[in-house]
Every structure is written in structure tokens, then in C-alpha cells.
Amino acid sequence: MFEALLQKLARGLDALGIPYMLIGGQAVLVHGEPRLTRDVGVTLGTGPERLPEVLNWVKECGWQVLTDSPADFVARTLVLPCLDSGSGIRPDLIFSFSPYEKQALQRVRVITVGTTPVKYASPEDLVIHKLVSGRPRDVEDVRGVLLKNPGLDADYVRRWLREFDEGQDENPLHRFEELWGRTRSPKE
Length: 188
Hints:
This protein is of the alpha+beta class. It has helices spanning 2-16, 24-31, 51-61, 70-77, 99-106, 123-133, 136-148, 154-165, 172-183, and strands at 20-23, 39-44, 64-65, 79-83, 90-95, 109-113, 116-120. The protein folds into two domains: 1-121, Beta Polymerase, domain 2 (2-Layer Sandwich); 122-188. Helix content is 52%, strand content 18%.
């Protein structure tokens, strides 16, 4: 079920020439601890100006757009929520064009799903996404990613989290340091 959808996503976005990376629960399954998820978060390396192309592709996929006014919703949130009715899986397409996202899209990890190369956020970028989001589930996911990836580039994570700390109620860098300390052995 997920395998077919991930292959469809990868092939379609590659055909459109839109850089992408899987984030969220699907990336956690690759870089962290297994858990249940019914959605697929996908960061697109483009702004909303390509929404018409993306909407045509979504229609070709047979997915339902979960908003009555996609252009208005994407302009406000940069997210196009969809549903694959056949599987019940929800692909959320996230438009992004920030300097951070551009760099993260260059650091993707390509993993073959079935016969299709699929691009996942790197462990470092997954940690950054999860800590900036800051939900309790995300913080637990980060713990699992840190445990499974002892060679994670903590300096890269710290550099970007410092940038995201400005204007945040919560302090993602502080959360990272706490989790990093709890998941490292005394020798590290």
C-alpha cells in the first residue's frame, strides 16, 4: 500500500522535475524507530507558482484534494493536503523554497522502494524538521533518530537550529542538546 504510493510520488515528481524529500513518519521509519503512520509528508523544492502543474498531477494520480480552494489554502499554509482514497493514505505536499530547504533537498538520501529510487530527508534534516515542529510525537521521533544514527552531524543540526530559534516560543536547539546528551554514551 505505502510502497505503491511512494513509487507513484517519486516517479511523478521526478517526471515533473520537482525536487522533493519525504519527511515525517515515512522518514522516521527509515532513520528512526518503527511506528504507525497514515500519511506521507513531502517537501517540494518549489513555490506555489507550480501549483497548477501539481494539481494536474494529483488529479492524474486519482487523489482527492482536501480543501475546497487549493490556491487560497496553499497561499496561506504552503501545504496541499491530499487523500489517496483507495489506500486511505494522506499525502501532504509542502511547497518550500527557503535557503534551508534548498540545502536540505541537496542532502537527500535515496532509498530504493520496490524498483523506484525514493528521496528521503537526511537524518540531520529530519531532526531539524521534527524539532522545529516540536510536537511531543516529533520529539520522541528525534530521540529514535539520534539513537539509530550515532554518526549524525550534530554541528550541522546546531547551525540550522540556531537560525530557527529566533522567534520560537520553544527553543529547538535547547531540546536538541537535551536529547543529544541523553542519547550519547558517556564516552561521546
